[in-house]
Design a protein that fits this description.
Blueprint: H1 2-16, H2 18-29, H3 34-66, H4 70-89, H5 98-105, H6 111-120, H7 123-135, H8 142-162, H9 164-207
């Protein structure tokens, strides 16, 4: 259980990257009053939490309904996470398109889009939740551990958004890039592990 908790915390923290969100939040909401920024951050975290919980509870059932094995999803999810990791390492990570950025700049309420989706609950976070909850099935209390880990990371993300201005000034652009790149290296290793586990199980099934 401790191993699962550590894996869930590390995976979700790396994928959501609360530190990397700070300058993005400053760009989107830096000119708004502090109280409004807190309100936007709180709503974004609640919406993202709802999306991730939905994937935690219904994701494995969806895979089963579609006839997709966990091993296949591990490989596909690992490849997706590896792509995200490469973008993080080379500072090319784009969580939204140019069209989405333009639309977000015109919105009064940016909490749902783009903060909650895709900045917090993006494809990587959704994929990670489905893989983690599927793997947690064989661990007593595993689903509870994964959910608590997700809520803990979301709480960290909330405080990172609330103090985004100070965090961005403290680290600077270079500091944020350094943290993001280190997290990208960790995510790439996790992604390779997901792919390796999926391939090994595929081979074991084929040879067995």
């Amino acid at each position: 259980m401790i191993l699962l908790a550590g894996q869930a915390l590390l995976t979700l923290f790396v994928v959501m990257d609360p530190v990397g969100l700070a300058p993005l939040f400053v760009a989107l909401a830096g000119g708004r009053p502090a109280e409004e920024q807190r309100r936007l951050a709180a709503r974004a975290v609640r919406v993202a939490g709802g999306v991730l919980l939905a994937f935690a509870f219904f994701g494995p059932a969806l895979l089963e309904y579609l006839g997709i094995s966990l091993d296949a999803f591990r490989v596909a999810g690992g490849l997706l996470l590896f792509k995200i990791a490469v973008d993080m390492v080379f500072a090319h990570r784009e969580r939204e398109t140019d069209e989405e950025k333009a639309e977000a700049s015109l919105r009064d309420d940016i909490s749902v889009f783009p903060l909650a989706i895709p900045l917090l609950a993006g494809p990587g976070a959704m994929t990670s939740m489905m893989i983690l909850t599927a793997e947690a099935r064989g661990v007593p209390g595993g689903l509870f551990v994964v959910i608590v880990a997700a809520l803990a990371v979301l709480l960290l993300a909330y405080w990172a958004l609330v103090f985004s201005g100070r965090l961005a000034r403290l680290l600077g652009r270079t500091g944020v890039n350094v943290v993001t790149r280190v997290l990208g290296v960790l995510l790439s290793a996790l992604a390779v592990q997901y792919v390796a586990d999926g391939v090994v199980d595929f081979l074991a099934l084929a040879l067995g």
